Amino acid sequence: MEAQTLPLNVDSYTLLTLNEPGSVFLPGSLGTLDPDGGADLGLVVPPATNPALAGLTAHHALVVIDLGSPFLAVVHASNAIAAHLIP
User: Fold this and answer.
1) CA distances from 67 to 14, 52, 78, 79 (A)
2) What percentage of the chain exceeds 90 in pLDDT?
């Protein structure tokens, strides 16, 4: 199996995704792929969020883990995509 590189910058968003996988803030972030190998992910920003976050860009990347492998092998790591927070 070839090595995978996950573009990772540890910040508060990274910690949220690691500490609360599948949370209400990240629906679809923990689950299985559809038959075509795809999935949908959402980013939910609560209404009472600080308005100063408007205009912020969060970058998201993902890993696909083979649950059938003895060591939970990472079989794919994506490139980062930008999520722009707009008012």
Assistant:
1) 22, 40, 18, 21
2) 2
Q: In the prediction, which pLDDT does 36 show?
A: 92
C-beta of residue 7 within 8 angstroms of C-beta of residue 80: yes
Domain range annotation of the chain: 12-84
Pairing of strands 81-84, 57-60: antiparallel
The pLDDT value recorded for residue 1 is 61
Spell out the residues 6+ positions from residue 57 whose beta carbon is closer than 8 angstroms to its own.
82, 83, 84, 85
Angle at 7 between CA 62 and CA 24, to 5 degrees: 35
Helix, strand or coil for residue 52? helix
63 and 6 in contact (C-beta within 8 Å)?
Answer: yes
